[in-house]
Amino acid sequence: MSFLRKQLDKLEPLFHKGGKLEKLFPLFEAADSFLYTPGLRTTNGPHVRDGIDLKRTMMTVVWALVPCTLFAMWNVGNQAALAAGETVGVAEAFLAGLWMFLPLYLVTMAVGGGIETLFSVIRKHEINEGFLVSGLLIPLIVPATLPLWQLALGTAFGVIIGKEVFGGTGMNILNPALTTRVFLFFAYPGQISGDSVWVATGDKLVDGFSGATPLAQFYGGAAPGELVNVAGGPLSWMDAFLGFLPGSFGETSTLCCLIGAAVLILSKIGSWRIMLACLLGMAGMATLLNLVGPEANSYAAVPWHWHLVVGGFAFGAVFMATDPVSAAQTDAGKWIYGVLIGVLTVLVRVVNPAYPEGMMLAIIFMNIFAPVIDYYVVKANIKRREQRLGLQ
After folding, report:
1. What are the distances in angstroms from CA 214 to CA 150, 232, 247, 348?
2. Is 129 part of a structural domain of the chain?
3. Both 101 and 244 in a single domain?
């Protein structure tokens, strides 16, 4: 490793200002930062105020996503086998899911990473590590059957419109991965929603096969005890909690999301206030609808603990709502922000017939209002302090 370090140090002057390869400095810096921990402090963007830098922060989030990613690979392969009426081993299901996941991941990293590199060269700054997380989140929140060209287009839209137009990492008001998801839903609804997109079965289908997610079954009038899996058997709450159901790659297992939440909370990177507030807002709104709404809408009768384990609620609350850039920053603001996400999620799911899954739309909607929430929280704090000091 010392030999590699010496070679990099020897090449470094070529990439600095005045060197022959000055315009390629972002590429050199990215490779050097990837191989070795940088000895530099963050000067702009997401300001780091303690011993952890941006690279360590992003890598911690990546590690927190590992349980969801590994389980996603197995579950997608297993769901495809069940839909085809086959029984496969753990390794075979995992490899099948891996071959479905890899193309999505590689396309996302190539397109998104390429765009970030281009903007870094144009703006003459280093390539930030922010896309390490976005590049993994995007393939985890799309179905296995999504065409690669649509994923490439959605990733480009998410990175450019959701991030780079605001100035890049640390400047964006929208979560880039969610921006990608929202673009794909409205641009290509047939490829990202509906019964047929959630299970990659090829041409092997069994009689009575249904790829409908539990959310879609609920909206069709099914009660919790009437849910079925892709093979036509009963689907219990525990099955849904563990993630044995169709859906986007990384969103199915609430258990894996909770493991990721523990990593983020213990490392103090993810806000437990936002996670808990999302849960409280969702549970409160679902309970209220249980009491007043079932007569008009059967979906309103779905209890809160089912809202927790179906769709992308757990994944969104842990990995999306807690984005330190696009979320609320004040402690009180985090509670307001999280509660409103939970409330809006249930409202979109129950009231909107065109979009059974509401978590992603709720988060990106609250991304827009997060600065406003923080503004009024700070303003209220200033007013209270002025009153306490007798300045009013």
Report:
1. 25, 12, 9, 16
2. yes
3. yes
Q: Tokens standing for 35?
A: 């191989």
| Spatial distance between the Cα atoms of 369 and 365, rounded to a whole number of angstroms | 7
pLDDT tens per residue across span 11-41: 666 666 666 666 666 666 666 665 555 555 5
- 76 occurs within a structural domain: yes
Rg (CA), the chain: 22
pLDDT digits (tens, 9 = 90+) for 295-324: 667 778 889 999 999 888 999 999 999 988
DSSP letter at 231? Answer: T
Q: Rounded to an integer, what is the distance from CA 155 to the centroid of its chain?
A: 13
Q: With beta carbons less than 8 A apart as the criterion, state whether 159 and 112 touch.
A: yes
Residue 79's closest CA among 207, 231, 202?
231
Phi then psi for residue 50, to 5 deg, are: -145, -160
**Residues ≥6 apart with Cβ < 8 Å to 249:** 69, 72, 76, 101, 104, 139, 140, 141, 142, 143, 144
Is the CB of residue 240 less than 8 Å from the CB of residue 228?
no
CA distances from 101 to 96, 217, 255, 270 (A): 9, 26, 20, 26
Tokens of 316: 């969104």
| Structural domain boundaries, residue 25 | 11-37+50-196+234-266
Size of the chain in residues? 392
Over residues 266-302, the pLDDT tens digits come to 998 989 999 999 999 999 999 999 888 766 677 788 8
Q: Classify each residue of 264-293 as buried b or exposed e, where b means 16 or more C-beta atoms within 10 Å of its C-beta.
A: bbeeebbbbbbbbbbbbbbbebbeebeeeb
Residue 241 structure tokens: 């909690």
Identify the burial level of 2 via C-beta atoms within 10 angstroms of its C-beta, where 0-12 means exposed, 13-18 middle and 19 or more buried: exposed
Instruction: Please tell me whether residues 274 and 290 are part of one structural domain.
Output: yes
Cβ atoms within 10 Å of 39's Cβ, excluding its own: 6
Q: Phi and psi at residue 221, in whole multiples of 5°?
A: 105, 0
